């Protein structure tokens, strides 16, 4: 007997909820915002818009389906099942936050604030939920993801990009090389290394790409290819700047050996969920074998 599908609604606490939780009451939150030239009415309206979207999406889920509701902060503690259909209600970044915890489940992105969000990953409106759930999994875009695997088996997966470097603003020291590049390895001191996907080419990766003059061709979201950039490499008698950017097609890997006391790797801006690396450890970064299956 097969289980009925389970709809997992992923959302995040709104700014209004965070303000009231911090200041205690609506009035105190309003006073705080007014002292900084903001009106709580706009924040409260966005909150209500999100609540209405969640209610509309929930009512569109078939009665025979099971349901679960999940806040962003609880993603790393939730066990997704193969029969789940994940409905992300919120911003584009929330889809990226959820992607690293999935293993092939279809994802439906619902935009709660059209015009405010780019809508790259949250492509649909709440009113479309019922129709899309009826065909979920039948029409999906398989978006490329990036992974970092350390020599102690720690593994990190991201949809947009992975950053490797020092916590804070310290200099990262490491040795960098590419598999199959004749053993060429360069000692570097920099602000870290960024490796991104075609989906990430709409965000942080694009800003670095533009600063470098856009010489490399940005990958498409479904393309089996990454771009990597070393940020602010520093030339010295002991460190070089010849390996600072490039393409990374599957199955090639970018290899980094730590020469700092501590470096970190985190994905999609979630530094709170970082992999920690110590002196002498090696980490390899490349195209991930899993894809994000985003309902088109």
TrEMBL record:
<dbReference type="InterPro" id="IPR017437">
    <property type="entry name" value="ATP-NAD_kinase_PpnK-typ_C"/>
</dbReference>
<dbReference type="InterPro" id="IPR016064">
    <property type="entry name" value="NAD/diacylglycerol_kinase_sf"/>
</dbReference>
<dbReference type="InterPro" id="IPR017438">
    <property type="entry name" value="ATP-NAD_kinase_N"/>
</dbReference>
<dbReference type="GO" id="GO:0016301">
    <property type="term" value="F:kinase activity"/>
</dbReference>
<keyword id="KW-0808">Transferase</keyword>
<keyword id="KW-0418">Kinase</keyword>
<protein>
    <submittedName>
        <fullName>NAD(+)/NADH kinase</fullName>
    </submittedName>
</protein>
